[in-house]
Amino acid sequence: MKQKSGLTRFLNCNILRDGKIIKEDLWIRDGKIINPEQVFYDEQQEADVSINCNDLLITPGYIDLQINGGWGVDFSFDTENVEEGVRKVAKELLAHGVTSFCPTMVTSEKEKYSIILPQIKKLQGGKHGATVLGVHLEGPFISLAKKGAHSHEFIMNPDKGLESIREVYGPLGNVIIVTLAPELPGALDAIKGLTNLGIKVALGHSSASLADGEEAVKCGANLITHLFNAMLPFHHRDPGLVGLLASTTDKQVFYGIISDGIHTHPAALRIACRTNSEGLVLVSDAVPAQGLPDGTYTIGPQAVSVDKGRAYIAGTKVLCGSTSALDECIIKFKEATDCSLEYALEAASLHPAKALGIDNCKGRLNYQCDADFVILDPKTLNVLSTWIAGECVYTAPK
């Protein structure tokens, strides 16, 4: 009886690797992508399972760094069934090709953090849902002048640096990103402290000058939260945080951008990706109304009204996140910028992985990387199936 090799081979497929779509088989074992030469020449093994992809496209799984909820779940509001809510969203995201995500909490009252944060644990994905990479905390250490949809009564300064951060959030073990305004008192010390803990710092909801932004980058920040939104508009004498796209900082600055067709004009998308192509990270910034019809919802303590797919703070015309999933944002981004298919897909996979420093295992289809990937219709970019650690976790209905 032939011994099983544990190998799965995807043949007749086009795969995205190193910025190019190539015709090549994909080999999987033990949740990792492996080098077929090792199998042929060293082990002399054959695949246990062969899957004919019929010229479909295989791309790295999408990674959403900023998502506030969806399908009626609000990560900042629902305290009764936190883990159940995260599981629901994680499961629904599989249909959109998202294999990893960062549940995002907006500015909230202090008590919410102590209840919600301990319950959103980092969790490996599978058939139960996408991988939870860690929580993205957006606020309350932001600028009142650029609060956007955040509740003004809970906004504060991180006067005592990391100590202020801990006083509000509590234990930081489940946290992967903190968004703050770098011009606030104590912010630079907070950035240094968070960075030393391995937590990524994003700059956003801010009135910062370019000098403020550059100093924050020197202190460890490496991200900008939803570029163009909730920050000073570009000015030729002081371009503000937008100027970090063309700054002479020593390291790459990544920036989230919402390409839902509402938040960012197509010309602004083109300016961003042509100025700093390597740093662009597509995010959904989706709210609890994602996947649901127009109506009334929440985002943290705020009431939200969704009209024709646009989410506003109730009674205002203040946008408060999108109702689009990441796969939709990819399609709209490609249409708006006329960029290559390879670039659009990497902006939602490789770039966010680089921003988090996990591109050694995620965001790529290179050998020894996690076998997290999406099989797409190459013409429509519709998600046909989603795979995590080499296991099929979603198949589109026929």
Automatic annotation (TrEMBL):
Domain Amidohydrolase-related: 58-391
InterPro entries: Amidohydro-rel, GlcNAc_6-P_deAcase, Metal-dep_hydrolase_composite, Metal_Hydrolase
Pfam families: Amidohydro_1
Catalytic reaction equation(s): N-acetyl-D-glucosamine 6-phosphate + H2O = D-glucosamine 6-phosphate + acetate
Keywords associated with the record: Carbohydrate metabolism, Hydrolase, Metal-binding
Coiled-coil stretches: none
Gene3D superfamilies in alphabetical order: Metal-dependent hydrolases, Urease, subunit C, domain 1
GO biological process, one term: N-acetylneuraminate catabolic process
EC number in record: 3.5.1.25
GO molecular function: metal ion binding; N-acetylglucosamine-6-phosphate deacetylase activity
Binding residues annotated for substrate, in chain numbering: A149, N229, A230, R237, H263, L319, C320, G321
Record: active site: D285
Residues that bind Zn(2+): E138, H205, H226
Needed cofactors: a divalent metal cation
Cofactor binding comment, as recorded: Binds 1 divalent metal cation per subunit.
Family: Belongs to the metallo-dependent hydrolases superfamily. NagA family.
UniProt protein name: N-acetylglucosamine-6-phosphate deacetylase
Native source species: Parnassius mnemosyne
